[in-house]
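Ticket #4471: structure output looks truncated?

Reporter: J.K.
Steps to reproduce: submitted the chain below (181 residues) through the standard prediction queue, then opened the result file.
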Amino acid sequence: MTWWRRLVGGSSARGSGRPDFLTEALDLEARGDYANALTSYRLALRERPDDLGVLQNIAIAFSKTGQPEEAIRTYRRALQLDPDLAGAHYGLAFLLLKRSDTVHAGMHLDAYLRTSRADDPQAAKFRAHAERTLQQLQNASAMESDGGIPGDQTSGDTGGDAGDWNDGGDAGPDTQSAGGH
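Returned output as attached by the reporter:
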């Protein structure tokens, strides 16, 4: 009669009866319900306060709900726990680009490229995007030092393809699932 024990608050052999907030959050996020996913992620984080995967997924959900400053803060918290967390460097870099912090964005893109696995086929598109964006930033910086003005609207030069700069909210590297991090 395990259903009865679960109903009245007893334990069952199958599980503890406690809600699995992480699974719930991942399910909500998969359905595009980022606001409710945030709530579930926060509850999951209470149970596992230093879970890097949960922190990265929270940052993504903040990005998707238009809260870039909270996403930035969350990525930085994850990087305090693990300075080599490639996915956090990637997400943070593109959020910093959105607020025109190109110096720090470039530092995080470089850190992502150093810490991500070049031989991982799943990371290939993210690495290519990071390499392209870092090259654009370096080209813009070189133009500035040569007296050019990147972003000069009169010349049509934007200092790189701004449309290619992702918002950091996509499920980038190491953020597909919060487990195992």
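Triage note (M.O.): checked the attachment and the full token line is present. The CA atoms of residues 88 and 138 lie 21 Å apart.
Status: closed, working as intended.
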